[in-house]
Amino acid sequence: MVTKRIAHTVWEGKLLDGGGTVTFDSSGIGEAEVTWASRAQEPDGKTSPEELIAAAHSSCYSMALSNILTKAGTPPTTLHTQAEVGFQPGEGITGIHLSVRGEVPGVDATAFTTAAEDAKKNCPVSQALTGTTITLTATLD
């Protein structure tokens, strides 16, 4: 069964001085303001498409890595994943860097790095972003 998630944005005004509101329809978790300035300069309490991609990627990646480790018989105690999405006005997304720190009993650093690379390659968000360079730093605590 295919699941679908829905969000929508209402934008008002021109690109540089306008603004919008992103609403998370499926979850009902609320709304977030988005502006060009929050995308190309400082966030100032507002979000950007790149931050939303970072949130999606870090959560999807964590789920994928947890699944890989669990299937190997070494479920993680904790995974802390950060996704950093680079954006250059006029160019677009310049790359994504994933950083993961994990506490995984029974796993050595080599096995953790192998699982982390597998998750980077196979998480659905990584696959959706295949036109973007994705790098990874994996650290076992």
Task: State the gist of this model.
The chain folds into 2 domains: 8-40; 49-140, 2-Layer Sandwich (GMP Synthetase, Chain A, domain 3). Helix content is 33%, strand content 33%. It has 4 helices and 6 strands.
List the helices and strands and how they pair.
Elements: E1 8-12, E2 19-24, E3 30-34, H1 36-40, H2 49-71, E4 78-88, E5 92-103, H3 109-122, H4 124-128, E6 134-140
Parallel strand pairs: 5-6
Antiparallel strand pairs: 1-2, 2-3, 4-5
Helix pairs in contact: 2-3
Organism: Streptantibioticus rubrisoli
Protein name: OsmC family peroxiredoxin
InterPro entries: KH_dom-like_a/b, OsmC/Ohr_fam, OsmC/Ohrsf, OsmC_Ohr_Peroxiredoxin, Peroxiredoxin_OsmC
Overall 3D shape: elongated
Measure the end-to-end span.
Answer: 37 Å
Low-confidence stretches: none
The CATH fourth-level homologous superfamily of the largest domain: K homology (KH) domain
Radius of gyration: 17 Å
Domains, number: 2
User: How many E-type strands?
Assistant: 6
Q: What is the residue-averaged pLDDT?
A: 97
**CATH fold name of the largest domain:** GMP Synthetase, Chain A, domain 3
Order of helices and strands: EEEHHEEHHE
Strand order of the largest sheet: 1-2-3
Query: Based on helices, strands and strand pairing, what is the structural class?
Result: alpha+beta
Largest sheet: 3 strands, antiparallel
Count of alpha/pi helices: 4
CATH architecture of the largest domain: 2-Layer Sandwich
CATH class value of the largest domain: Alpha Beta
**What amount of the residues lies in strands?**
25-35%
Q: What is the percent of helical residues?
A: 25-40%
